[in-house]
Write a structure and sequence with these properties.
The chain is an alpha+beta fold. It is built from 8 helices and 15 strands.
Length: about 300
Amino acid sequence: MSNSSVPARALAAATYESDGFDECRVPISGALRTLLLSAEELDPEQRSATRLELLELLRRYVDDGPGLLVLTGIPVEIDVARAALLRLTSLLGAPLPQNREGLLVKDVRDRGTAIGEGERARYSDSRFGGNLHTDGVEAPLPAPEVFTLLCVRQSERGGALQVVHVRDLVRALSEWPEVLETLREPFHFDRRGDQERGEPPTVRKPVLFEQRERQAIAYLRSYIELGHEHSSSTPLTDRQRRALDTLDRIIGTLALTRVGKLREGELAIFDNLSLLHGRTEFEDDFAHTRLLLRTWIRLSD
């Protein structure tokens, strides 16, 4: 059969190019595959051994490596995928609510909004790119330590992920000590409507801080700008704007260091304390719209 007779999506799936996530990809197998895909529960001893296996992968790829692990070979049937994601999440720790309604699994897809539009629209509800960030910046600290993305359907055009590690940012910013000092002071982050009745519409916290006894970052520039526009907040000072502009410039120079595109059936685990991430703008086909499933995780000790 010639390539001209092969559907474009099938051809793309068969001819994936290598990318910056290749060194992070690990096929699921053995007990881990059984736990994620079986409808039956493992006995406590098997579950403990499987958790240790997963934690060793996280140590190698997330803690000591590039900050993410990509598990391959997850079925993309939505019910199976959702169950597998929740099983993995519970193996690592406790799933965290992603909004005030208590949502534990977020459908990341284009809902036709722009970043920061209205009171509640978020980055994950749009198709637009850029704006490298960490997840959960609209909530008070402590931040979600880990988040996951399971690719059920991928866009044919765009949607590649870019990631930047905080250690590289801090190293690059070391020649601007005043910028580092400013980023360690509190900013107002817009809550995106997730505050309870009577609570302020922003949360004050630094961009650079420590959590779990290590350097961490919480960032999404547009949420900071929205936060400082509230009447109850103080406007951004010139010093704060210079610090954010410098941070953005460094992020821009590092954003092409590691770029990858999740493939359908891949489950990525990100270090949300250390890794900024963003995507390139994507376009959906009417019959095949991009869908990723996301959880936020508080790790078990």
